């Protein structure tokens, strides 16, 4: 069953009912100011950091699920309704929500009154713009009351929903004309406030929630709206809101538009006030002046659309498969931007309070983002490196506002350091910019303790070399990529964090996954050493890599697949000797991607075992058989009921590792078949099972052991976005940035005849035409660049004109 459709021309997903299986959301904002918006206009806004600078409140885990947003109430005689259906849930005569790239629109109607709400954050300013157009489609004059509504958060989202003894007494606002200023805590240490403004004279306002709704009512049924009269309440403590009241008269066929602005404003410390306790409104006035007319707002929206068109023009493929084109050209790249911006901080499943930017997460997000805006990728790499510890280990997460390590989750996830090499190398391959390696980065954000980025990478590499266990494999620490494989934790106390309990590193628990990761990205580190003329170091590192490969093939091989780990007692995890958890996906994917076992059959055996034991129609499960009981020695992984999350769920993040591995062994048909299984665009028809947005990857899909097999969970913020984009663009379509240039090496389904791709790379536009006359899965027969035959599969960036014609023949 479907709940909408893709509009590829406008790059939108069109939702045709407000009652989607879950809220289907979109992201507004591209750099500092962000909003989350659902298909019923639910969601919230924040500036830079969803925990520390939250503008509006959202109630997670509520009933109904999606509660609070930017709501507009239209009172047309006795009918009170919202363009986005929520919160009144008044049945609408028509409803349509379009989620586009950085904007969402809602068009609905009731009793011949039409409302169109457009929500977006302009590229240049810290404000969410809501343009609401009302049209009278009836033959009579309509006299309406329009009410707006947002509920302010008292800035620190965590404190806001826990510290009620204080917070019920701190809320403050000012109301001047049509602008509501939310200034809680401004009198003391804050130098920022929020505004909620409308570009019309108002007929009333409310800023106190309980007065607006009535103490026993809710936003679904507010007294002020029902009676058609604002109370002009001025919030003192309790829950400050912003609500405007506008009386509207519309002749038949007449339209009127209202521009609402929800913005963030900041003053210099010494310019905070214009009179005693009266906030300096200069930045607000400046902001309002920029977005007061339809023309200004329409221009800003057009700028946003142009911005996205230009970003997406950097990679555009034309295959015979419409769904593939749509995923690669629009939605997957869009999600890569979202995951780059948010890491794992704010979604409908990440509260914005728990996690900030993940060291490994953000490093991996770069893999799918770096081609879009390399300069922002560069900044991010440096931000991440700045939090690294002197010994090469890493904070697991850091706070986006302060950019310092987050102590709550601590450190000791021993895969973390290596991902910094992955992210940095992706950046260099894309740009050829080796100067990033000279950038001075701090250790643990201490400005008196710095070293070059290259030195940081060296410490990442050496951290693994110096932290090995009895089998010569890397110590796992608190966990590796699988946050839930906690082999040193041994927690028997309810509520203890699996990630911070017990010693951060036991003496023996080892990870075969980190071993594979070390081989894969260690090789890239060696390339950097060679490039910098560090030949001796390169040779020494190669030896370390060989030693690691030896350890993997000797101790990390179970006979038909790679073992996953050795626990704190040196017993294998992910081996046929285990009763449950006999085979895991991660070590198969990472070791084959690292090209381990290509020459001795191990790689092929591992992939066959994955197919035989882990594959399902909805993707590859993380492990099998699922753990049916809690295992003290394994930790969080065994805390989940079978089929969910890391306990044998289909973890979408690592499915592309297997897709990628299949291309490495030349299986284009199998790779593409797997690629489609977790791709939401291909699942649009089974949304009643899948449930999450058909235009965004989710973190996991319930595995076959779960009663809800096939159900997607935790959409949007997942490494799946970056890994899937890297896999489809570089390994299937085979257009792969490499240190020395653009490498072309496709691995495709054999029934494809041809495809075309435009790829902007290091300032040039490559028009790539791939032909497959012999219907092979892999193998490049010839490459011509501007008509000249090439002798390798790498196109040297100095070759050709600014627009380069590339003809590739497979065979
Ligand atoms: C989540 C985390 C990621 C981790 C994965 C597996 O997606 O954000 O860091 O690798 O879970 O546990
Ligand atoms: C990962 C896992 C999740 C776990 C979390 C702990 O995100 O997916 O199950 O709770 O890590 O940080």
From TrEMBL:
It comes from Lachnobacterium bovis. The keyword Membrane does not apply. GO terms for molecular function: carbohydrate binding; glycosyltransferase activity. GO terms for biological process: carbohydrate metabolic process. Keywords: Glycosyltransferase, Transferase. This is Cellobiose phosphorylase. Coiled coil: none annotated. It comes from the Bacteria. Residues 307-734 form the Glycosyl hydrolase 94 catalytic domain. Residues 11-292 form the Glycosyl hydrolase 94 supersandwich domain.
């Amino acid at each position: 069953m479907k709940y909408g459709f893709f509009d590829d021309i406008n790059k939108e997903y069109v939702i045709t009912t407000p009652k989607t299986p879950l809220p289907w959301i979109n992201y507004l904002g591209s750099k500092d100011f962000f909003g989350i918006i659902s298909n019923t206009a639910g969601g919230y806004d924040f500036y830079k950091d969803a925990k520390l600078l939250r503008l509006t409140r959202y109630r997670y885990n509520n009933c109904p699920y999606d509660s609070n947003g930017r709501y507009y109430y239209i009172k047309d005689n006795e009918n009170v309704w919202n363009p986005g259906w929520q919160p009144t849930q008044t049945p609408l005569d028509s409803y349509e929500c379009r989620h586009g790239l950085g904007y969402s629109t809602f068009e609905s109607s009731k009793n011949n009154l039409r409302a169109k709400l457009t929500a977006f954050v302009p590229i240049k300013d810290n404000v969410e713009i809501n343009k609401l157009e009302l049209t009278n489609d009836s033959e009579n004059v309509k006299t309406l009351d329009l009410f707006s509504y947002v509920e302010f958060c008292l800035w620190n989202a965590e404190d806001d929903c826990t510290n009620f003894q204080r917070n019920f007494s701190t809320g403050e606002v000012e109301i001047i004309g049509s602008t509501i200023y939310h200034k809680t805590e401004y009198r003391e240490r804050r130098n920022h406030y929020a505004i909620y403004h409308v570009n019309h004279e108002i007929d009333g306002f409310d800023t106190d929630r309980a007065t607006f709704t009535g103490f026993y009512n809710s936003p679904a049924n507010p007294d002020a709206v029902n009676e058609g009269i604002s109370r002009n309440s001025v919030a003192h403590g309790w829950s400050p809101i912003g609500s405007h009241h506008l009386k509207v008269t519309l002749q038949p066929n007449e339209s009127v538009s209202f521009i609402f602005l929800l913005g963030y404003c900041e003053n210099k410390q010494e310019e905070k006030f214009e009179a005693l306790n009266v906030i300096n409104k200069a930045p607000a006035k400046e902001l309002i002046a920029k977005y007061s007319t339809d023309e200004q707002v329409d221009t800003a929206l057009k700028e946003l659309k142009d911005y996205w068109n230009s970003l997406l023009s950097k990679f555009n493929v034309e295959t015979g498969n419409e769904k593939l084109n749509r995923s690669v050209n629009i939605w997957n790249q869009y999600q890569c931007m979202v995951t780059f911006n948010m890491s794992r901080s704010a979604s409908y499943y990440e509260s914005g309070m728990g996690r900030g930017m993940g060291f490994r997460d953000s490093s991996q997000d770069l893999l799918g983002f770096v081609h879009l805006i390399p300069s922002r990728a560069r900044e991010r790499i440096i931000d991440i490196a700045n939090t690294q510890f002197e010994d090469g280990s890493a904070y697991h997460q850091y706070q986006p506002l302060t950019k310092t390590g987050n102590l709550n989750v601590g450190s000791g996830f021993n895969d973390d350091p290596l991902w910094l090499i992955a992210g940095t190398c992706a950046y260099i391959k894309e740009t050829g910019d080796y100067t990033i390696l000279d950038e001075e980065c701090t250790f643990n954000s201490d400005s008196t303790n710095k070293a070059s980025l290259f030195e940081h990478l060296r410490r990442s590499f050496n951290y693994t070399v110096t932290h090995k266990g009895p089998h010569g494999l890397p110590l796992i620490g608190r966990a590796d990529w699988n946050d839930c494989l906690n082999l040193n934790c041994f927690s028997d106390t309810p509520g203890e964090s699996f990630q911070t309990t017990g010693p951060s590193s036991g003496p023996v628990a080892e990870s075969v996954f980190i071993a594979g990761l070390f081989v894969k990205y260690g090789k890239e580190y060696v390339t950097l050493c060679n490039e910098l003329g560090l030949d001796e170091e390169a040779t020494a590192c190669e030896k370390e890599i060989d030693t690691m490969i030896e350890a993997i093939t000797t101790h990390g091989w179970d006979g038909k697949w790679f073992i996953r780990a050795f626990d704190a007692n040196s017993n294998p995890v992910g081996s046929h000797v285990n009763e449950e958890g006999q085979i895991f996906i991660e070590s198969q994917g990472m070791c084959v991607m690292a090209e381990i076992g290509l020459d001795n059959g191990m790689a092929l055996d591992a992939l066959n075992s994955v197919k035989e034991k882990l594959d399902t129609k909805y993707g590859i499960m993380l492990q099998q058989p699922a753990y049916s009981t809690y295992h003290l020695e394994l930790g969080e992984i065994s805390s989940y009921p079978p089929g969910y999350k890391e306990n044998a769920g289909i973890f979408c993040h690592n499915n592309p590792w297997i897709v990628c591995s299949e291309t490495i062994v030349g299986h284009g048909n199998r790779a593409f078949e797997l690629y489609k299984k977790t791709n939401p665009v291909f699942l649009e028809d089974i949304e009643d099972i899948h449930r999450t947005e058909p235009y965004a990857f989710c973190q996991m899909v319930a595995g076959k052991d779960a009663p809800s097999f096939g159900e997607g969970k935790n959409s949007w913020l997942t490494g799946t976005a970056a890994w899937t984009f890297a896999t489809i663009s570089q390994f299937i379509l085979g257009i792969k940035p490499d240190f020395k240039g653009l490498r072309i090496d496709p691995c495709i389904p054999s029934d494809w005849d041809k495809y075309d791709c435009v790829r902007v790379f290091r300032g040039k536009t490559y028009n790539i035409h791939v032909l497959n006359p012999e219907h092979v899965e892999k193998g490049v027969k010839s490459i011509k660049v501007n008509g000249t035959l090439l002798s390798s599969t790498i196109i040297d960036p100095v070759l050709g004109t600014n627009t380069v014609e590339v003809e590739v023949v497979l065979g």
